[in-house]
Amino acid sequence: MMPVASGRMELWRRIALLFGILVGIGLFFYVTPSIVKVTAVDWQKEHAGELRSISGYVSSEKKRLNQLPLEDYINEKTGGKVTLVDAGQWKTFFHEVQLASNGEYARSIYGNRVSPEDKDDFWKPTGPVPVFFKPDEFPFAQWGLSFESGKRVYIRTNEGTNSYLLLEYEDYHSELSAMYTPYRVAPGWLYHPYRSYGIGVMAAGLLLYIFLPRRKAKTDDIAYTGGTLVAGDVVAVIILLTFYGLPFFINGGTVQTVTSMWPISLVMWFMALFGVVVLYYSAWYASFRIELTEDALYLITFKGVRELRFAEINSAGLVSLRNPGWFRKLFMAIALLSFLGGRSSPQPVGGAVLAATAAYGGLELIGIGKPLYIWYTDQWGGITIRNFNRVTEAIHSAGIRINNKFREIEGFSMFM
Questions:
Q1: CA 20 to 30 Å from 47, out of 145, 304, 305, 368?
Q2: In 3-state terms, what secondary structure has residue 166?
Q3: What is the pLDDT of residue 71?
Q4: Per DSSP, what are the bridge partners of residue 82?
């Protein structure tokens, strides 16, 4: 009876891992589109502060402002853009913002809405700091604030000169880029609203990768060893995290990867496709096994079953697969450029040596149609397929002679 294809769960396992990385990183780095900064204003301190100077020099303009009556000073600084709000309705809001803005975080319900930079014990702020809100949390538009980047307006109640708040609108989608990030940004839970979801998605992908059911291995299975399969998955994850994730980090956010330095993002994402290819072939190797009968050899993967009858085999021989010449030269060029650039790390040279010396041992079976290659060693000559000797014994038993002299060929094992 002919075996049936199996191991499709190995493909789904890696699809879950890939989904977790692609979606999780996007959610992790997503930045809220916009924010409103609300800062308490103490006009008396600002009025008196016009004469303060670290160097001792005070400009004539500052002297003029200091000499103005307080009401005139406020009018000139605000440009007349002040909105009067109902003290009875918004008294608590003003009070809580003023506490948080003036550093009394523990006493304010908005103490968790201050930038982490302003809570740094080393760089203590010398004046009121902004408190961050989402644009739809309060009627900022009704208070005269235009939702355009850099726009600002003052609001006040009729309870004195200290009952003023400054509202400023920041459009993170247009302002953030690889070249610019504001010094003060909203606290993490506002600035990255989906970060916890991103971590959850990545964790879910990893858990599915680990715990999705596997075919129970048998002692006489002819299949790749577990260590080889895990190593391939680790390499794929490293490639994806590096080339897929780096544009998000460089550009400062998810939307910014396609609005800022998007050509670099496209180049790096193209390179990340190699990680997807590695994951796909890792699933193929994980589902791979060989079954033998008296008259045939069957290669079983999630893609299907390939039958090769011993009577159809014209010749069999050992082959040694090396990386293509252009691939070896590319790594040598990278190592040379690194050396000429003054880099002291041995990593580029090590990569070039590995690319030049790596050789994978395989069995070539030539019959009807395309030759069949079974790669059974790693680049150091270690056996990667358990019980592979059963394959060669079955071929010998069928009366087929195996040429034990290695024939050198070039290419990539995953494509042969």
A1: 145
A2: strand
A3: 86
A4: 154
- From the CB of residue 93, how many other CB atoms can be counted at a distance below 10 Å? 17
As a whole number of angstroms, the distance between CA 221 and CA 371 comes to 23
pLDDT tens for each residue of 397-407 = 999 999 999 99
Alpha-helical runs (H) found in 30-164: 43-49, 60-67, 70-78, 87-101
- How many whole angstroms separate alpha carbon 196 and alpha carbon 75? 44
Distance CA 221, CA 117 (A): 59
* Torsion, Cα of 132, 138, 139, 141 (10° steps): 30
- E strands in 159-245: 164-171, 222-223
Determine the pLDDT at residue 161.
57
Paired tokens of 337 = 């450029």
The least confident of 55-64, 106-115, 368-377 is 55-64
CB count in 10 Å sphere of residue 293:
14
Q: Find which of 110-119, 202-211, 228-237, 350-359 is predicted with most confidence, using mean pLDDT.
A: 202-211
- Dist. CA 99–CA 109, nearest whole Å: 9
The token pair at 182 is: 């504001």
What does residue 230 show for φ and ψ, rounded to 5 degrees? -65, -40
DSSP 229-267: HHHHHHHHHHHIIIIITHHHHHHTSTTHHHHSSHHHHHH
The DSSP-derived string for 108-137 is STTGGGB-GGGG-SSS--SS---EEE-TTS
Q: Tell me what pLDDT residue 5 has.
A: 61
Name the more confident of 82 and 204.
204
What would the mean pLDDT of 272-290 be, rounded to a whole number?
Answer: 92
Long-range contacts made by residues 102-106, C-beta under 8 angstroms, separation at least 24?
A: 102/40, 102/128, 103/129
C-beta atoms surrounding 275 within 10 Å: 21
Q: CA 262, CA 327: separation in Å to the nearest integer?
A: 28
Q: Where are the alpha helices (DSSP H) in 315-368?
A: 325-340, 347-357
Task: Please identify which residue in the block is written with the tokens 């030759």.
Answer: 371
CA atoms within 13 A on the CB side of 111: 8
39 contacts 165 by C-beta, under 8 angstroms? yes
